[in-house]
Predict the structure.
Amino acid sequence: MDVLLIKEGFPLLSFLIFFPLAGALVLLAFPKESFAKLWTLAVTVITAVASLPLLMDFDPATTKYQFAEFHHWIPQFKINYILGVDGISILLVILTTLIMPFCVLASWNYISRRVTPFMFCLLIMEASMIGVFVALDFVLFYILWEFMLIPMYLLIAIWGGPRKVYASIKFFLYTLAGSVLLLVAIIALYLKTGSFFIPDMMWQQTSSLFQILVFLAFFLAFAIKVPMFPFHTWLPAAHVEAPTAGSVILASVLLKMGTYGMLRFCLPITPEATLLLAPYILWLSIAGIIYGGFTALAQHDMKKLIAYSSVGHMGFVTLGIFVLNTQGVEGAIMQMINHGVTTGALFLCVGMIYERTHSRELSKAAGVGRYMPWYATFLVFFSLSSFGFPGTNSFIGEFLVLAGTFEFSTPLALAAIPGAVLAAAYMLRMLQKIVWGGTDNPDQSYLSDLSKREIVILTPFLLFVFWIGLGPQPFIDLIHPSVANLLEQLQQWQHHQVALLTLP
Amino acid sequence: MEHNVTFLGYIPILPLIGAAVLGLLHVGTCTRKPIHEKIYGVFACIGPLLSFVLALRVFFTLKGMPEEARYLTQEAFTWFQVGDLNISMGFLADPLSSLMLLFVTLIGSLIHIYSIGYMSGDKNFGKFFAYLNLFLGSMLVLVLGDSPVVMFVGWEGVGLCSYLLISFYCEDTDNVLAGNKAFIVNRIGDLGFVLGMGFLFWAIGAQGFDFMSLKANAHVLAPGVALTVCLLLFVGATGKSAQIPLYVWLPDAMAGPTPVSALIHAATMVTAGVYMVARFSFIYAHVPLAGEIVAWVGILTALLAAIFGMFQDDIKKVLAYSTVSQLGYMFAGVGVAAYSAGIFHVFTHAFFKALLFLGAGAVIYAMHHEQNIWKMGGLKKKMPKTYITMLIGALALAGCPPFAGFFSKDEILFSALATGHYGIWIVGVLVAGMTAYYTFRMIFVVFHGEPRDQEAYDHAHEAPAVMTVPLIILAVGALCAGFLNLPAIFGGHQQVSHWLAPSLTEHHPHASLFVEIIAIGASVLAFVIGIRAAYKRFGAGAEEPQFQGFAKFAYHKFYVDELYDAVFVQPYKRIGDAIRKTIEPSVTDGPVTLAAKVYMIAGAAFKVFQVGYVRVYALYMIIGLSVMSLLLSQSLN
């Protein structure tokens, strides 16, 4: 337990989990819709504000898990309630808490029926998502990981579009199928190490076969969540049918759990298998980047376009993780945050058009820029960010990932780079249709430009786009020690292996 | 001597602030009551003019320094730092960037002023100036960037503005598609830039990735790596500076407003590639093979574009191909390691080509947005100021001594000859003749002879002063800029080359007077032949020709656009469509759907047995019991 920096006094992480949960329970007692909206907004804002001390009091000098909490839970099976954050998870927690108020705001008019249950689902979602990122006990992690599927399933199945049943079931079963093996792997690890405490499972000497099997079980669960090509087919369906807030949560937070899992579990728990299988995963990432780009290029539905662009962007993240060097991994973490900001904002933008035209077809939205200049301005900036324009956030992430890839292998970097052209091509195609339009636009003059509420929603995203784009160092400084420690341990472990092998 | 200063950053920031202010004003008011144009105009010109003043300050500060230590730096902040990778937002002003600064801010300011007249009445007046300010700011970042990465920020920024301004008249889908084409073709080039940076970084970047450190460490580059870096960076340059094979976007870029064509697509942005090669001269100078390739690509582009330019009927397309062709000369110059000659041609070309475009803009403005030269004619009586200034620009472009273009072009051709690049020199002289021909074909058809469209002619009028004054200033530049680098043979001291010397890694070729005279003589002869041919054909009125054979082939630009479309664009689209329609649903998602189907079929199969009648379940029980007892009895036996 020496890897935990137990926090005395106020249990901040528990508060972040249980406050939204309690907020959700309050809604059961007071189900009036107008109250539900305001209450949920208040709860998410308070959670967001309460999460800020994490940033302020976070000590980047240590690589231990901070703000840690430890309570016995089911001592017979050594299952404990352990929470903590390090450089890998802290920004993801903050991203989650900060994005939730905007999801509430984005649903203000969009959700017109069963408002209270919707808000209830959002709060449950928030509690379980934060829990996933801070849980350090594998059983706790697994419970939250699976639990999260239920509110998301409901968000799509109840408030979704025309094919909501198909999309929600596909989402639920596909991701659940991946997680079943995760449970098997967790139990196998418990039997091997006698502990559910995640750091206890790291850097153990286990047989190659065992590592590979555990790795594959992990990988399948996480790759489906990311989603990596070719396990991505649930994503476009889910995105297209989900309400705006659902798409934002899905893109900004849920997908990150897959890559978070790879960093947190695959690398330190199964280092040998990671080193062995990394080349294949890298090429799978490249395939995802190219495949996602090409597919996005051919879409007529804005949400599908952005969904496939996510496949490409997340390909960059997995690429960065498995090149296993500082630039790559830190770029990958930055890119996780960036994708959360940018793609979340893009889904919000699509939602705003959908509220007006009741269509996500590019052709139906043609030429809205003329009547919605504020909207067009925001959309152009977020699109630039999406294809990694210098000065915006994604440039930093992609640049670092590419730099890391370059160090690892030149052919790999060469293969990844055409993704940048494709990204520009499909985003410009979208801008051309929506913002600039053409000679045969449908009549859009009835459209009203963004309301104050909508500008308030989008502005913080834009601030982050440029803040991370122009001054990313504070963010990098937060994640650097943990990543450096992870990679150093990996290297030590590797040397140790070599030493073992060369023993007479 | 203090090299760290704090005012460099303001040079790009001032126009960028202008862009933000104008953009907010425009977006905030355009759907309601628009703001008066004058307010936009004043705001728009403040940034560029102040930047010009600061550029002068940079120039004179540098001039006051000892020659070998002429540089100013400013490190604004550490941008990002991960492991060995340490990138600062820093600016560097040395003789090379100070020269670029001067003419970029000067011509930028003039074109801002001109645009107040040209764009008046446009409902997106504010947006136009916001973009134009944004462009200037980005261009200045490109010029001042102290590392390849900061340069790349400006590089992408100018590309974005170029895209936004080409698509400016977005009611017409073709214009937007031209913008997309420009951006995507540039992005393809940018890949080269990024890869080149990558190779460079992993070779010598860990000791510092700013230009000064790179220059200091360039000698340890392995020859193979140096060649790779040079060629990859040059791929980036072919995109931005419209060289073979990526030149195709520039003629289409003429869809933008004419001041944009003058500023971005003639004077400044498109020369960024040449600037980049000169900036990296410390590597190129040690890789002769790379230089050879650059020079040949340049001169062949010059030839190809000149051929196309001879057959165009759109006044802006003629100038666009001429720009591509002149950029080719510049690359020929930097390719034969005559970096200062290439940059000098960038400098003079900025004046006379901006002048020609703005003149063409005045003509288009007067003819109510008619761009076909075969609808014009006899305009010199109606627009004398435009005619005279354009004539000066044309003489400079055609290389008539003593106009600016003559000296700079001659410097390049002389360098090619003196360094033994005879092939490049011969093609260069040939292109010089063709340049004179197509330039004066345009002048004669537009301004001389009889009006071809009487009604348009009757309505034509001279442009307002806000447009003609910039023309006159640029004409002075086109007339005099050449004298700044007068070679010794004419009694000059080559001030520009001397000024640039500390920034560049070059050796001036020493050649006999005889070689110099041959070079000059050939250039003058080519000019005379070209202009004579144009006069014979178009001097006294000519009808629109019907193209046959090769001319028709050239008129259609060798069908290169169609070729690219068939070879690159359509297959990409088809791959995307194939994935969307076939591969994604059946191949990628196939196993998933299959798994679901298997479960459903299995479920349906088991459903058959669940009929819900007690008698059937009783039957199952009897069957089961009999089978069990049978098995039991067998095993007992």
